[in-house]
Design goal:
alpha+beta, 407 residues, eight-stranded mixed sheet, single chain
Length: 407
């Protein structure tokens, strides 16, 4: 149950049942689940509130994840404002092929940019449910998680004072470069990694989407993708060499490549606009095992990364958070340890399922540009099969929507 603790600025010793490191979708969802069950927790975030509410990130949320948020009272704005997507479109061989997965499955995607979801989750946690959160903290360290008395230390940004927070559990939700993952002893950790050997130039354009759905261009010059984000802003991707310099891609070159790689007979021209973001993402995946070390539980990108090839990252973070938040509540409020004991195994089933799909989809996206006639031929065979075989279409739709491994 709720455990009293001095305010974080009091200078007195602090104690919370749970300290959450990282205020992304995973950390904030865990915090909200705990507060809804009257469990005190402290969220520590190295960035400012303004920064995390504006940081551009993913925007595709699977329906099961939205229902999980809705069940926990965290989806009100999302359900009111998100766009619903029921189809995607592949463009290859100079033609367009619409894939109506909503008709095949009765399910759909929600498009709701991550900054909006984070804004909703911060407001609910801090302003509505009274959760304690510290932004802009420095020098975060995790201590003694392999004992029954873990703690987290940090430096207060306003006073420069060093603070130590004692707790029962630490939820490490601070991403690939955070202190949670770095706190694991290297000899006890296995990081399984896959590098695709390609880069994606990630772009945000001040332009309305040129289609009502996601576009996948499978072209001999490289993959291109359009992912609508809002009526005014569109996310584009262009395959490029790994480690490429975004400055190699001026406005004119970007739009020329997008026009060519997304071109198909009978389609209207792309709606162009000012590019407000350009960065190169090197495509790779990793999975950290174990996800649990003593009283430290990893969630989200701290535990696994799936390249944006299949738009699965935020969904996996939410899946972890649902499982971890519910398991912590069951232990702290009811003494039931079964869900905590099975947390990692339950998470990793979906993680590996999504990793396998990402690898499969990468070959579909990039095989025609590999410079290998054999790979190009088999890639085109896969693409044609999606539109000629009901069984292949059903299997793709199930994995694309994340309904194969239900939460």
């Amino acid at each position: 149950m709720t455990q009293a603790s001095p305010p974080p600025n009091s200078g007195a010793p602090q104690r919370f049942p749970v300290v959450v490191v990282g205020a992304g979708p995973a950390g904030l969802t865990v915090g909200n689940i705990l507060r809804a069950a009257s469990v005190d927790c402290l969220v520590l975030e190295t960035e400012t509130r303004e920064f995390i509410e504006q940081r551009p990130r993913a925007g595709v949320i699977e329906e099961w994840a939205v229902r999980g948020l809705e069940k926990r009272g965290l989806a009100r704005n999302l359900l009111d404002r998100a766009e619903l997507h029921t189809a995607c479109e592949f463009r290859f061989g100079g033609e367009r092929y619409r894939f109506p997965y909503g008709e095949l499955t009765g399910s759909h995607h929600f498009v709701y940019p991550q900054p909006l979801l984070v804004t909703d989750l911060v407001r609910e946690y801090a302003d509505v449910r009274g959760g304690q959160i510290r932004f802009g903290v420095k020098d975060v360290r995790v201590h003694d998680v392999d004992t029954g008395r873990p703690s987290v230390s940090y430096t207060c940004p306003e006073t420069g004072e060093h603070r130590v927070v004692h707790c029962d559990f630490v939820a490490g939700c601070d991403g690939a470069r955070g202190v949670s993952r770095a706190s694991l002893p290297p000899e006890r950790v296995r990081v399984a990694r896959h590098d695709y050997g390609i880069g994606w130039l990630a772009l945000l354009a001040e332009a309305p989407p040129s289609s009502d759905c996601v576009l996948f261009g499978c072209h001999a010059k490289g993959f291109a993708g359009q992912m609508p984000r809002s009526p005014e802003v569109t996310r584009y991707y262009l395959q490029c060499p790994p480690g490429d310099d975004p400055e190699n891609w001026p406005h004119e070159r970007v739009w020329a490549e997008l026009r060519e790689r997304l071109g198909a007979s009978g389609v209207p021209p792309l709606t162009e606009g000012r590019l407000i973001e350009k960065r190169v993402l090197d495509m790779h995946d990793y999975v950290v095992e174990p996800m649990v070390f003593g009283r430290l539980f990893l969630a989200g990108d701290a535990a696994h990364l799936v390249a944006p090839i299949a738009a699965k990252g935020m969904n996996l973070a939410l899946h972890d958070a649902f499982l971890l938040g519910d398991a912590l509540v069951a232990h702290l409020n009811g003494g039931d340890d079964s869900a905590l004991g099975g947390y990692a195994q339950a998470c990793l089933r979906r993680v590996w399922d999504y990793q396998e799909f990402s690898q499969w989809l990468s070959e579909v996206y990039h095989g025609t540009a590999a410079g290998d006639p054999f790979r190009a031929g088999t890639t085109l065979a896969r693409l044609r099969r999606l539109f000629t075989s009901p069984a292949a279409a059903a299997a793709f739709a199930e994995q694309y929507l994340g309904t194969a491994a239900r939460y």
